[in-house]
Write a structure and sequence with these properties.
GO molecular function: disulfide oxidoreductase activity
CATH topology: Glutaredoxin
Mean pLDDT: 88
Order of helices and strands: HEEEHEHEHEEH
CATH class: Alpha Beta
Pfam family, one: Redoxin
Family: Belongs to the thioredoxin family. DsbE subfamily.
GO cellular component, one term: plasma membrane
GO biological process, one term: cytochrome complex assembly
Number of helices: 5
Largest sheet: 5 strands, mixed
CATH superfamily: Glutaredoxin
C-alpha cells in the first residue's frame, strides 16, 4: 500500500523544494551574486598597464577613495552591453573606474577601446588569470565596488545596468563617501 504513495510523496517533496528555490530567487537582486570576499580586503595586485607608457597598475594606488574594478575583455559580449554605463559612471568624476583586462590579447583590447571608448583611469592586464582568480572571477563582465580602505563592498556579475547604478551603486557610493569623510 505505501509503495503506491511513493510517487505522490516524491512529487510533493519536489514541489516543496522548487517552491523554496523560487522564493529565494525572487528576493535576489539581478546582477548581485554572493561572494565570500564581500566585507574583506580586496586582493592586492600590481600588473602591467594596458596602454602604451602606462606602466604598472597597482590596487594600492587607489586607496583613500571608493573605486570600481571592472573586469572586461574585447571578446566579451556583455562588456559591450555595459560599456556605455561604465563610461557614464567615469564621466561623473566622483568614482574612479579601473579596468582589469582579463584573458585578452593586448592588440584586441586596444582596438576595442579605440572603437568603443576608454572610460578607465587605469587598465591592468591579466592575460593569465592570476589576479582575477583571487577575486573569484569566473566570467566577464564582473565589477567590484571597493571602499577607501580597500575592502570589497559589492560585486556585480554580468553587465552593470543603469538600474543597478540608480538602485544599488549610487546609494552605496553615498554611504562609502560618508564613511570616508569625503
Amino acid at each position: 500500500m505505501i509503495w503506491r504513495l511513493a510517487p505522490l510523496i516524491g512529487f510533493v517533496l519536489l514541489a516543496v523544494v522548487l517552491a523554496f528555490g523560487i522564493r529565494l530567487s525572487r528576493d535576489r537582486v539581478p546582477g548581485e551574486l554572493p561572494s565570500v570576499l564581500i566585507g574583506k580586503p580586496a586582493p592586492e595586485f600590481t600588473l602591467d598597464g594596458l596602454r602604451d607608457g602606462e606602466g604598472p597598475v597597482s590596487s594600492t594606488q587607489f586607496l583613500g577613495k571608493p573605486w570600481l574594478l571592472n573586469v572586461w575583455a574585447s571578446w566579451c559580449a556583455g562588456c559591450r552591453v555595459e560599456h556605455p554605463v561604465i563610461e557614464a559612471l567615469a564621466r561623473r568624476g566622483d568614482i574612479t573606474v579601473v579596468g582589469l583586462n582579463w584573458k585578452d590579447e593586448r592588440g584586441d583590447a586596444l582596438r576595442w577601446l579605440a572603437q568603443f571608448g576608454d572610460p578607465y583611469r587605469a587598465i591592468a592586464t591579466d592575460p593569465d588569470n592570476r589576479v582575477a582568480l583571487h577575486y573569484g572571477v569566473y566570467g566577464a563582465p564582473e565589477t567590484f565596488v571597493i571602499d577607501a580602505r580597500g575592502v570589497i563592498r559589492h560585486k556585480f556579475v554580468g553587465p552593470v545596468t543603469e538600474r543597478h547604478v540608480q538602485t544599488i551603486l549610487l546609494p552605496l557610493l553615498a554611504t562609502l563617501r560618508e564613511e570616508a569623510g569625503s
